[in-house]
Specification:
The structure holds two protein chains of two kinds. By secondary structure, chain A is α+β, with helices and mostly antiparallel strands. Chain A contains two helices and six strands. In chain A, a hairpin with a 4-residue loop joins strand 3 and strand 4. By secondary structure, chain B is mainly alpha-helical. Chain B has one domain. Helix content of chain B is 80%, strand content 1%. Chain B starts with a helix and ends with a helix. The chains are: A alpha+beta, B mainly alpha. Chains A and B meet through helix 1 and strand 5 of A and helix 4 and strand 1 of B.
Amino acid sequence: MSAANHNTASVPLGFLLPGVHARVDALDDRIDPTQREQLVAYGLAPNRPLVVLQQHPMTIVMIDEVELALEDSVARHVWVTRR
Amino acid sequence: MWAWPILLGVLFAVYEFVGVFGAGTLVGLMEETLFGEYLNPAITQFVQTRVGLPWLADLLVGQYGLWTMGMTYALALILPIVTTFFIAFGLLEDSGYFARLSVLANRLFKLIGLNGRAVLPMVLGLGCVTMATLTTRILHSPRERLITIFLMALAIPCSAQLGVVLGLLGGIAFSATLIWVAAMVAVLMLAGFLAARLIPGRRIPLVTEMPPMRLPLLGNVAKKTLGRLKWYLVEVIPLFLLGTLIMFTLDRVGALPAIIRAGEPLVSGWLGLPKEASAAFVMGFLRRDFGATGLFALSSQLSPIQAVVGMVTITLFVPCIASVMMIVKEQGLKIAAAMLALIIPFAFLVGGLLNHLLRAVWGAGA
């Protein structure tokens, strides 16, 4: 899925401030397929809720009980909607 | 905000435990007391009186003997260091700190075509590059493994070598140690930068789970430490024995003195070191810290510039034979040979350039 397919409220995960709650819309197809599978396995999949914990030095989110760190080049291709 | 002070604290604690307690106190007890005063004299006497063939006795307990060199290095020198290192590594691993260290180091490692996950083998390499080469299996792509193994073989000193380097340069001046550190970091970054651009494939961005920080469970740490020690005993000791056998054979056929003589123009001319330093480079191939120790023994004959140039060159110079064997095991003979063909001239090139630079800045008499 490319950026053009997202709804207008979708923003890249890397743009959200710490403390913001969001829901995953899509994982951009510019993310390497193997890495996309890895993200889904960690729980970062469409319709899953998450909380942004920090953005520096990397994006760190909490999904259920899993804390996941993503590099900016990945976080900007994860599309989310604020809740 | 606290990440860097915590990192410095962790590194200091690891250095105190592995570098001071393991490489200093425990190695002193094992090498000087247990092996030096009791085991080696008794075994040497036993072999020399019971083994009729002089060459066989020499192979077992001579200068390059399987027991007096191979087993003594493996058990008295390296075992205490790797044991303390495995314990420290296990404690950090079980506490959940390593994932945070990967995140912290990610930006720096991006410059050399890697991601923060590569910090783990590199930190481990400061203990023992041989073992760290094996742990590059935690990296996700063959390209990352290749770059990390190459950089470790080139510019990451093992703890034993680090101890000797700091011992010699620290005795000269703090600035000498700083020049050595700056040279190592510059080479690591430059070689990584070039390797990342020359080795085909693309960099994999870091995505990692952050396990919760907790007090390490001693049972877990003990289990992992014992598992790693078992690996060390089974896989590394045979490599030490093989390395010793190679040195013994080279010495017997007269190749060792010839290699030393052949290297003299390069060592004395280009690097500006005393000709006796040639032997240190041959010994450095057997074990990295050996070469450094060889230079340490010459320290009274070395000027400050010679000491810095010698230590920089010997640190960059080929990894020990056990590491080379491990690189062959992990990457194949062709890649290992290519790495050596690149590393050896590069080490002498950097050492010679540093020699000329330092002499130009401080003058030939320094």
